[in-house]
Design goal:
Elements (H helix, E strand, L loop, with lengths): L2 H17 L5 H35 L14 H17 L29 H17 L2 H29 L1 H8 L7 H4 L7 H27 L5
Helix pairs in contact: 1-2, 1-5, 3-4, 3-8, 4-5
């Protein structure tokens, strides 16, 4: 089996492990294992499929698809925004997360980064993945980072669909004042931008995370990001 075939299989397994949460099998597993048991199984499956995917990527040959030197600097431009979205997501209570549905009962359930997008973590991952697909320009990176990009973008839609079915009117009220695509609700005047609600702490945390990744990148990933 060729290294590229192994990467394709590992990526497919990684995506399948995550897409289970959007199938009827999820409800059956929760019924059998309980919510905590399901989360443990889901996390274990995610890690168990991610590790082979990473090894397969580093062992895959370089097969160039495009060579545009300027694209090498795309991550330097996109990654600060990606890291701010990820940091703000980790520091903001979000009713789209498992076990946080009670937040939909709040008078204003969409505050801070949620005014920009109700899926800041997913969009942060999407920006990270898209930036690396463009910058690398090879087949293995297209499969590896493209897998994360597909997972993040499809995940936002699948989460919305699952929450709409499960939460009904509470979700509809939240969805009416937020958007999946960043800034879409603000552009449509269904919400407003508030830098104060996001706060300096989240912005600085994101930029600090970006600086840390930039510093560690050559040591951890074996490639200079600039």
């Amino acid at each position: 089996m060729s290294p590229m075939t192994k990467l394709l299989i590992a990526t497919a397994a990684f995506l399948a492990a995550h897409f289970i949460s959007s199938t009827p099998l999820r409800a059956r597993l929760i019924k059998a294992l309980g919510n905590n048991g399901y989360l443990v199984l889901y996390s274990a499956a995610a890690v168990a499929t991610l590790i082979p995917m990473i090894f397969a990527y580093y062992r895959a040959p370089f097969i160039g698809l495009w060579h545009v030197p300027a694209l090498r600097y795309v991550p330097l431009v996109m990654m600060p925004a990606a890291m701010v979205l990820i940091a703000a997501s980790l520091m903001t209570r979000n009713p789209t997360l498992v076990g946080q549905e009670r937040l939909l009962k709040a008078d204003d359930p969409a505050r801070g980064i949620l005014r920009i997008t109700r899926h800041p973590m997913m969009w942060g991952i999407a920006l990270w993945a898209a930036a690396h697909v463009l910058a690398r320009g090879d087949a293995a990176s297209l499969v590896f980072f493209g897998g994360f990009l597909a997972l993040a973008l499809s995940g936002t839609a699948l989460i919305d669909r699952r929450k709409q079915v499960a939460l009904g009117a509470d979700w509809q009220r939240f969805a009416a004042v937020t958007s999946n695509v960043p800034f879409a609700a603000i552009a449509a005047r269904r919400n407003r931008f508030s830098a104060a609600e996001i706060g300096w702490a989240r912005l600085l945390a994101g930029l600090a995370l970006y600086a840390l990744v930039l510093w560690l990148h050559p040591m951890v990933f074996g490639a200079r990001p600039y």
